[in-house]
Amino acid sequence: MKKLYSNKFHILIFLLPALILFCGVLIAPIGASAYFSLFDWKGIGPKTFIGLSNYKELFTSNSIGFLKALRNSLLLAALSVGLQLPLALALALALGKKIKGERAFLSVYFMPVLISTVVIGQLWLKIYNPDYGILNVFLRAVGLENWTRIWLGTKKTALGAVLVPTLWQYVGYHMLLLYAGVKSVPIELREAAMLDGATDGQVNRYIVLPYIKPIVRISVIFAVTGSLKSFDLIYVLTNGGPLHSTEVPSTLMISMLFLRNRYGMGSTIAVLLILLCFGFALLINVMFKESEE
Amino acid sequence: MKKILALALALCMIFALAACGQQAAPAPAEKPAEKPAEAAPAEAAPAEAAPEQTVLKLWCIATESDANRPGYEKAIAEFEAAHPDIKIEWEAFENNSYKTKIKAAMMGGDTEDLPDIFFTWAGAFLGDFAEVGSAYCLDEAYKPFAGDLPEVMLQNSTYGGKHFGVPLTYNIVTLFANMDLLAEVGYTEIPQTYEDLTACCDALVAKGIIPFGCAGSETWCVTEYLEPIIEKTIGYEALGSIFAGQGSWNDPAIATAVDNFQGMVKKGYFDPNGMAIGNDQVKANFIDGQYAFYQNGSWNCGEIDAKETADGVNFEAALFPVMDSAKATYGQVIGGPSDTLAVCAYSKNADLAASVAFELGRSICHYCYLAGSGLPAWTPDYDTSEVKQLVSDVAAIVAKADGMVLFGDTAMSADPANTYLDYVAQVYGCELDGAGFVEGLTKDLG
Q1: Per-domain boundaries in chain A
Q2: Is the ipTM of this complex over 0.95?
Q3: By CA distance, what is A6's nearest residue in B?
Q4: Which of A16, A20, A45 sits opposite B132 (nearest CB)?
Q5: Which CATH number fits domain A68-292: 2.60.120.10, 1.10.3720.10, 3.40.50.1370, 3.40.50.1220?
Q6: Does B140 touch chain A if contact means CB atoms closer than 8 Å?
Q7: pTM across the whole model
Q8: pLDDT per position as a tens digit, A128-185
Q9: Could you give the maximum distance between any two Cα atoms of chain A, in Å?
Q10: How far is B52 from chain A (nearest CA, A)?
């Protein structure tokens, strides 16, 4: 067996099927997108090579609004890290203390992750409906008529209204990741700290959090890259409207590809999204590494 | 020995992977020759022995909730009964997702999945397919049907002098009015002048009735209001020229028209909730008596007429009044033949599919006209006494039409059409005034 491992040719042969799959499914489409991003192309018919013009136009054109879409995604990423993850962590820490009904709470919090995003979108569309939506109905019922809004129909409220369900849906997902981490903390460590007189808060801060740091890092990466890639819920709720106020790079990409027939520009957005996701994942890794050191 | 074993194992794995792969797609068919159908179903002699069934795939947007659905069902059933040797396998997709699906499918080129016949919009949408050779030329297949289908109806699906589409029905932007609500403010007929219309709207607002319903989240619905106003200000020829890319948006009269429209929005003539709800709900609200007017395509006649018949609500149809009588007349309309069937150039049975498309098109037009979901692009050769009243009213309007301009987002190709829609949305959202609209479109589209 040692001889087998020492032969690089054998290693290559055994890795080949997986390598072919990896390249075919991941690398080749990225390469194709990068290639198409250099063309002015309707998706059908001849292509015109235009070099990096699509990239230039993406960052300079006001009518495309890529920077605004990117800003919305970054806002979502910031809220995911600043609101969603702390909430998920708080729930994970609370449930990790073997409270009564732990399993039931876990299931309830995780339920939105299991429901199809399109279904969630439809539910929130009904919640936000200006006529019969539960939100406006509730506000009217408690005498806050002035607070009622056309939540998804005005620029001022649409982005916030879209962000709420987007953040809410994945709280359970991050909670489950962090909960698994909390549960893996050796009981002896907790007990030793308690015997030394540490409070619950101190145990969480000095024992649990450092222990689950790798999982927190994974959660942050998922939250940030997930925000940059966010698409389905926004597509169902507003499709980037009104007046592009809820546009994110993914909805813009779909609009370029299938509404405007600008496959080159759509591919450019795809390439930038990939680069952004990789870039942020690397940055987060570096930040966590530095803090560990 | 171990080396040989390892190599053999690796080769087995590679072969297994290769075996799991799909069989190679057949070589792309050559671009079909533009020759006449040898055995078009319209002229085909009845076969003595039951021939093998030819399956033709049809993609359309006649979903369960679509007003044209019954028309498709009847037409296809009738066709299959008359032609037992041809089976129509049809699939219906939701309007917006269909636009994505058909383009993505055509991008793939020659595949087994492509339909033989597909629904499309005339104008630039079909034009893109025709330009790259994905749509089949129908010149020869049209000849036997020319007597029933006036050539003028094919003008929106004709590119470079060649016909690529079979028009089904045609539609115009129609101003529907709930006469019962108008009666509450003292109007017994739809206002015929702009001043009269605004006076009527003011009276409606004062009485707590919302004059217009419009789905702001679907910008094409906003164009159903804005385009007639621009047309009735600058005239149909000028607007048609702009949509065709020959004229310029740089016209102060367009800015005036846009400001007039925005003035109506600012005066509260439109349901503010319309920004957050879709057209289906807006239409339902109008039919339920929440708005006095609803300006949209004449394909809605059937649904609105059904409510009139069931509940005795009095609806009438008209056109938006003239804004500048020096340049426009009342009889200038927005619309024309747009709903179209086309044949995929990669179809193995393109000639047959072309003839079938014409036969189906005639039949779908027949049933949709009777159902009130469109006006007939084909000359009716059947009893039309059952045609719904609202449809007859709209047909009468069209009969007196002075000129027609195809819907802007259909006439323009995808990219400029969406740029135009962006500006329209900004006007409806009061982000941009008339001058800004004209300046922006002149800069972006010329």
Answers
A1: 68-292
A2: no
A3: B3
A4: A45
A5: 1.10.3720.10
A6: no
A7: 0.81
A8: 998 889 999 999 999 999 999 999 988 899 999 999 999 999 999 999 999 999 999 9
A9: 80
A10: 34
